[in-house]
Amino acid sequence: MRWENLNLTEDLTGDRTDHGRAPDAALFGAGAVVSRTVDTPEFRGVTFHEIRARSIVNRVPGASRMPFEWTVNPYRGCTHACVYCFARNTHRYLDLDTGLGFDSQIVVKVNAPELLRRHLSSRRWHGEHIAMGTNVDCYQRAEGRYRLMPGIIEALRDHANPFSILTKGTLILRDLPLLRQAAEVTDVGISVSVGFVDEELWRTVEPGTPAPERRLDVVRALTDTGIGCGVLMAPVIPFLGDRPEQLRATVREIARAGATSVTPLVLHLRPGAREWFMAWLGQHHPYLVRRYERLYAEGAYAPRWYQRRLTRQVHELAGEYGIGPSRPGLPRRVSPAEPAAPEESAPTQLTLM
Predict the structure, then answer these.
(1) Rounded to whole angstroms, how far apart are CA atoms 19 and 29?
(2) Other CB atoms within 10 Å distance of the CB of residue 47
(3) How far is it, in rounded angstroms, from Cα 143 to Cα 148?
(4) 3-class secondary structure, 83
(5) pTM for the full model?
C-alpha cells in the first residue's frame, strides 16, 4: 500500500492535482497510519486506516467548472458502495482495489477538525467557501464511529466561514444544532443526493446508502428547521432510471419533501468507476452492455443530446411541481394524486445507438 501517493486528490472535477506540492510531499507519512477492523455487524469486512494528515483543505484545479475553489474530505473510500462512484479511481493511487477495496478500505483523517481549525486561523486564509462531500460522503457510516464532522462544522462556525455539504447520509441530522448555529453567522448550503426513488434500483446500485425516502426525510427535516435544502438528482442512470414515469415519481417526491431546488446529473463513468459499473451491468443487466458501450463511446460522459433532453424533462417536471428558488412564506403546492404520465415510446436514440 503506497501511502506516499496521497499527495494527490480528486473531487467532482475529476482532476488530479498536487496543489503545488513537491512530487514527494505526501499528505502524511506511512508511520502515521494505524489500520484496524471493528467486529460489529455494521462494519464487518471493513478496515479503517487511521491517518494523521498533514493538510485537509484542498484546492480545486483552476480548469474546473465547479462553483467552488476549496474542498475538505475527511475520508477516502466509502461504505456507501455505490457501483457508479466516480471517486473509485482514487484508491488506485494507494495500490488498493477500486472495486470492493474502495467499499471496504476506508482512510480516516482522524485529525481533520484540528487541521481545519488551524488552517482557518491562518492569516493567509481569506474565508473562501469550502465544499464537503465532493469526493466521498462525509456522512458515510464511518462518521458514526469517528465523529469528525461536528469538529469540522464547529471550526467553520467559529470562523464564520461559508461552507456547503453534499450527502446521501441521514447522519447529518445528528449535527442539525451545529448547522443551525453555523447558519446564523455564515452562508450554509446543504444538498442531498437522490437520483431516483425506485427501491429495486436503489438496492442494487447503492447498497450501503440509506433508502431514498430516508434521504428525503433529511430534506424535510432541514426545511422544517429553516435550513434550505436542495436535491442533486444524481445520478440519473440511462435505461434503468430515466423512464418518464421514473423521473416524474422522483421529482414529485423531491417536491413533497420541500426541496428548494432539483438539479439533475446524468451518470458519468470515469476510469475506475467505469470498469466496476460495467462489470456490475454485465452481471445484472447484460442486455444493456452494448447500449452503454455505444452511449459512452466518446468518453466518461453521455452525449450532450442525451444530457440536454434529460435536463429539460426534469426542469419541466420541477416547474410543474413548484420546485424552484424559494421565497419565505411561499408554500409549495404538490398534487396529492399522481398525474398520469404521458405515453411515450422508448427513449429516442440516434444512429449512435
Answers:
(1) 18
(2) 15
(3) 6
(4) coil
(5) 0.83
